[in-house]
Amino acid sequence: MPLNRHLSRGRELARTAGDHASDMFAPLTVIGRGLRHHVAWTKDRWQATPKERRGPTVFLVAAMLLGIYLLPHGLLFALVALMATAAWTGRAPKAAPAAAEPDVADTKLSALYAALTPYLGGPEELNPLYHHEGSYKDAFRAWEFDGEGRLSRLELAYPAYFTDTEPVARARIEQVVQGKAGRAREYRFDWDEESNKLRIAALAPLPTDIAAQRFVAAPGEVVLGFTDEEGSARTIPVGQGGVVVQQPPVVWRTGPRSAEPHLLALGVTGYGTSSLIRSIALQALPFGDLVVIDGAGTGEHACLVNRPGVHTVETSLHGALAALEWAAQETERRLAALNAARHAGATLPEDVTRPLWLLLDHPTELSELAHAEGRPDPQDLLELPLRHGRAARVTVVIADDVEARDRITATVRATTRARVVLGPAGPEEGHAALGAPLDIVPAAQAPAGRGYARIGNSTPVRLQVPATVDPLDEEAPAQLRDAVIALLPHRDTRTEAAAPAEVPPRPAGPPPVLPVELDPEARPAVELGKEHAPLRFRPLA
User: Which of 256, 390, 410, 429 could bridge to 261 as Cys pair (CB 3.0-4.6 Å)?
Assistant: First the structure.
């Protein structure tokens, strides 16, 4: 008989014997599986039992075993019950373990480590932190993910030879991290140059449902917007979503004792620089007088025309030059009156102590038009109010497009030490606008009014401007429009009967200062409709 046939017959006999043996010992296998399940259950119960209850538990089990032993045929019945429960428990075969889901940390951190390797790895380094065959656990010290599986915090180490003092090198690493962690959020990067560590934190979004309202602030303080808890040392009550909550504000202090008396706001088109101007105007009206220059000529500030305390709202080059020339003369007059009063030891006159606000929206467009026509640059007329405005109680606020920062004069850039930038500006644009590097990477998509602020030499903070829409914009939500209308110093003739009033004659001197608590019935009503008669500007004294 050939050898192959003997081998095949032997395999068949062995397979048959194995099948018979498995059939014979199947009950024992089932009982053994059940006993293992009982042992595992007993061990889990024992570990879950508190230590102070383990003694009484052992005593009760021992008493139960002693009772079974003393019963007639108790041990036999107990053994039969144990075998029956073991056979019932072990009747089903052990299910195959489910495939483990991939770890979020391993997947995302490995991808981030691989993306950083070309920038932080050195081919000539003996023990590199970053190399193509390395693990993220060698370089990443700590990490944290939120409930949605997104990276929220990360601390990593980088080689000592990395040029962490150069903004370009930092921006490259920040861009890679944001791309792998998600561009829909803002990230704060804390570079520890001494320890060669980088701490990354994903920032929570700022509230966008805060409408224009009266904020709790002292005279001379302007709430530019709201930030996170790390960016402000105090909170103020704010109406938000129908309830009053505490929010940390970004406060800009003006007046003769302010170190940053003037403000420059730059922003990407459509991100709310005009809303910031309106918000500042509504907060300044109860305590001062306004001169508004709308260089874009879009009528964003037409709601301020003919309001008590608003000298004029100009949109043309001729009107803007006349208003700014008057502002320069008014600054000189205030300085002379203040010096004379101090020299004589007399009380300061009220018409020179009441703050005067110059609000300019997109003045660079008027500058280009003035250069084309060979007329004086409106920005040059701001030199006297900018340099001596703090002593004369004159505050200048300039808002323009971030792409027009090169057309802003050097005097304006040097004297406006309060800075705001709105929109997703890049690292270079943020540095140029704020005058300091920004340690926060903006999100790819940001809501209107989102940006950053820097007051003087302080650290830049995040900023969300209150929703201050144009009340004449019919496409804006009615609730936000009504909030702005409620702050304007006039009666809303859309809902109340307009009291007849005559146009006041041209004053011989400066416009009189109207008190804040003036009876609203005595003020002229202004129609907010689009079909109203042509706007009349208050003449300049």
Answer: 390
Let me know if 470 is exposed, middle or buried by CB neighbors in 10 A (0-12, 13-18, 19+).
buried
Instruction: Answer for the pair 419, 458: CB distance below 8 angstroms, yes or no.
Output: no
Produce one character per residue of 8-18: b if its CB has 16 or more CB atoms within 10 Å, e if not: eeeeeeeeeee
HSE of 106 in the Cβ direction (CA atoms, 13 Å)? Answer: 4
Q: Which single residue is written with the structure tokens 């202004």?
A: 526
DSSP readout, 376-392?
Answer: --TTGGGHHHHHHHHHH
For the chain, the straight-line distance linking the first and the last C-alpha, in angstroms and rounded, comes to 129
Q: For residue 452, give the nearest of 471, 467, 433 by alpha carbon.
A: 433
What are 63-94's pLDDT values in tens digits?
888 887 787 877 777 777 777 777 777 666 55
List Cα–Cα distances, 502 to 36, 322, 360, 526, in angstroms. 99, 26, 30, 12
Report which of 302, 342, 377 is spatially closest to residue 536, judged by C-alpha positions: 302
pTM: 0.72
**Quick one: tokens of 403?**
């792409």
Quote the CA–CA distance of 467 and 488 in Å, as a whole number: 15
> Taking a C-beta distance cutoff of 8 angstroms, is the pair 323, 291 a contact?
yes
392: Cβ contacts below 8 Å, ≥ 6 apart: 331, 334, 335, 338, 352, 356, 385
Token pair recorded at residue 94: 């052990």
Encoded tokens for 70: 């003393």
Q: Residue 154's beta-bridge partner residues?
A: 143, 200
What are 469-527's pLDDT values in tens digits? 999 998 999 999 999 999 998 754 543 344 344 434 433 444 443 443 444 444 444 44
Query: Token pair for residue 521?
Result: 């019935």
pLDDT tens per residue, range 204-241: 999 999 999 999 998 899 999 999 988 898 999 999 98
